[in-house]
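Hi again,

Forgot to attach this to my earlier email, sorry! This is the prediction with 6-hydroxymethylpterin-diphosphate bound. I've pasted everything inline since the attachment limit keeps bouncing my files.
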Amino acid sequence: MFWQTTRFRIALARPQVMGIVNVTPDSFSDGGRHDDAGRALAHCEKLLAEGADILDIGGESTRPGAAPVPLDEELRRVLPVLEGALKFGVPLSVDTVKPEVMRRALECGADIVNDINALRLPGAEEAVAAHPGCGVCLMHMRGDPATMQQRPAYDDVVTEVSEFLRERMTALSARGVAAERIVLDPGIGFGKSVEHNLALMRRQRELLALGRPLLLGWSRKSTLGALTGRPVDERLAASVAAALAAVQLGARIVRVHDVAATVDALKVWGAAGLAA
Ligand code: HH2
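Structure tokens for the complex follow:
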């Protein structure tokens, strides 16, 4: 299976590690650490040295209750990092919900649009469809970051997430976006309780029926805190275990903060014949 993106046709035979580059002052686990272009680019280099396959660059925190970032500010954060990172010769993803950020990032040469809102803002589908070949990650979220953790409720979270992702995929196909440009993400922690997230983990294989590669983002998330009783800066082991579980259950891309540990774990997993 492949993921077609702007410059790269990414082979997914080996699970891919997407390293997180948050150019934000307020991300939930690493806010403020890489919030100028120089520091963010140094972080990109570090993640690549650790074995990241893809870099995901974001300028707006999506943590529960996060304040929205104005368009100009998000562009100011993201574009210089994107421009500087093009020279690394790896797939670059831009983590945004804003159509104008998507457009400008794609003009600049971004390979992938990663949208936690699955291209639901007006103009977002058009921004991706107007591009001849960028990749896109469609993620499920219930509500928006300001309100999403206020009593999320589902009859059957796995079925509802699956139906949502199918609907979003169909909407994009109707605009002429080839299926091989699309990957899908159930959106761990986005409008979901601990039980919802764990149901999505246990029944992750059901989402494979959608026929597109799955991307999972468990890294440092609060469900791992609920399972282990650990604060966000002590969730390395839990994050690596969750990434391995996701791969074992069929994910082809994992979005992580701790690239070195995840890459090492996946190498051992692969040697055991478990992540082929
Ligand atoms: N999670 C976060 C942000 N973007 N994108 C995808 N596709 N899947 C995810 O699970 C996902 C995502 C939240 O994590 P992080 O970027 O570390 O935090 P923040 O949103 O506070 O910057």
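The CA atoms of residues 245 and 256 lie 14 Å apart. Residues 20, 22, 24, 27-29, 58, 61-63, 95, 114, 116, 137, 139, 185, 187-188, 215, 217, 255 surround 6-hydroxymethylpterin-diphosphate (CB under 6 Å).

That should be everything now.

G.
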